[in-house]
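Subject: complex prediction, re-run

Hi both,

The earlier run crashed halfway through, so I resubmitted it with identical inputs.
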Amino acid sequence: MHRQGKRTIIFDSAPSITGNASVVGSVEGEGPMCAEFDRVFDDDTLGEESYEKSESALQKEALTRALKKAGKTEESLDFIFAGDLLNQCSASTFGMRDTECSFLGMFGACSTMALTLASAAVFTESGAGIMSAAVTSSHFCTAERQFRMPLEYGGQRPQSAQRTVTGAGASIVSLHRSDCPSIEKAVFGRIVDMGIADANNMGAAMAPAAAGTIADFFEDTGCDLRDFDYIVTGDLGFIGSELLRELLLKDYSLDIGSRHLDCGKMIFHRERQDVHAGGSGCGCSASVLNSYFLNRLKKGEMEKILFVATGALMSPTTSLQGETIPSIAHLVELRRPDSVRTGGNNNA
Amino acid sequence: MHRQGKRTIIFDSAPSITGNASVVGSVEGEGPMCAEFDRVFDDDTLGEESYEKSESALQKEALTRALKKAGKTEESLDFIFAGDLLNQCSASTFGMRDTECSFLGMFGACSTMALTLASAAVFTESGAGIMSAAVTSSHFCTAERQFRMPLEYGGQRPQSAQRTVTGAGASIVSLHRSDCPSIEKAVFGRIVDMGIADANNMGAAMAPAAAGTIADFFEDTGCDLRDFDYIVTGDLGFIGSELLRELLLKDYSLDIGSRHLDCGKMIFHRERQDVHAGGSGCGCSASVLNSYFLNRLKKGEMEKILFVATGALMSPTTSLQGETIPSIAHLVELRRPDSVRTGGNNNA
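This time it finished cleanly. Structure:
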């Protein structure tokens, strides 16, 4: 691999995603992405005694299914890259504890899917190993009680708040194969803090980080926006997405317009499901990427996308101490398999 | 780089640690390592309004000093790998938020120094970048109130409990230089859970993970114990260290005997400082590695060491839910600079 410009990594061998899976909870199963997911759990507890254990089970289920779709077992994996929103990333450590693979815990809040995916690509191309998994999850009930209020309290949330997705996604990253989608480039983001302190408006806090990473990518590579079917952000939701478009246009003269999609906007029916500003959580972009987008890339219905997952890096403690919200966005460029012809750029 | 055996990564180019620094709090400054540290803060608040902010300041101070010793500034850094024990790794995200570097948040609990150092070596040798920082911290006051009791409560702790170190360490990892210590090999550990549930006896929970990683390394590489001046574990403390030796002897026929040192045993005076089973926390192994050990490698007083940092991957929530403690150990082989002749293996 080599570096282009200030921050972009070019994967010369283009590691492939040879398996991908996403599993979600009941509310997500009622959303517009319903038919895309590998499994919808009607019971958000997954039969576990606590929601934290349910979240770990979600992660394990996503990994198991992704491996199966790759035609592999855990024994084939050299590394697992995983992280989540829970204190001490416990959904991941407990979800993955029965595996025998080298485990690298990561923390990127809701940017984790892009962080783990890009890291897996670096390790694969570097020769450190030949097969890795990138895994993450979130759960509405664990996030709500950890970050906000006890579930029983039934607190009102402002319209700017997003709903944490109950879901997990897993990608298996391997040496290049012509019949699988590939990872072409990546940008590991920098921390951006524009002074927003409202933890009920995280899309707004994260939008400048996404804008910075996207702008860095286009400046580094000289790519044209029209090279991509879509710029897919993680979970900016309705408010953050608007802000992102405005920031890119105003500060960087990039008009992403109709090429922009946001997993936080896509995963729920806005009106019917009463989710306010959209979905959020590591599981949001993880479940949508590992179903809707990777499936379309595999079929050649899309040629190339930029997947830009965003994370708000605060904790309840830092918010209570009056801190603002540092944010980050990691980017991965994904491409359809060589062997699949493209049905045409949907936006062209 | 290439892989040897099941889990060991060989860094063919042997990236160097071109700068290292450690900064600690007042109690650590009264310990036997006092003269080794770059800075001892008499005031553990570092003048900040909260202990969480103090911990972030510790991390920033360690990074600044390591960069200065490397003769570099933040602008030279391609990546920062950082993590800590606080919920949502906030000591790192807030400590590093003013930097402009690509930021990769990692979670390995007290194994973080080895996790970030090994990751930085992979990224450097891979060509993803040419200079990275590996940074971590812990703070007695943030850990105590997050994991155990309010500080004012003054709870009694059992003799098996370890004291969280107030300290931070940073290493600057760059392309190989003949005048700096080098990173030769690494093992990213697997999660090991032997069913220990007592969060006041973490050394015991972590010892099997350390034993597994060390045994994997010797099996993979065929190295001889006598190739190393020391096997340095992170923070097993007095109880965990004993267990490690027993496990390695019994299960793997490896007698590490007098070649074993543990940062958790080294950082405090056991009797005089009333620290029970020794030191712990990400800052324990980070501060001792980035002072005592790297300084001795630099001078050739040691030739080669294995640095094996261990982490207990539980959270207060998982412990309250009756879960046992999954643990992990990551290993890095470090070598003196090419240009420095060795004063002889202290143990030979």
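The first helix of chain A runs from residue 26 to 29.

- K.
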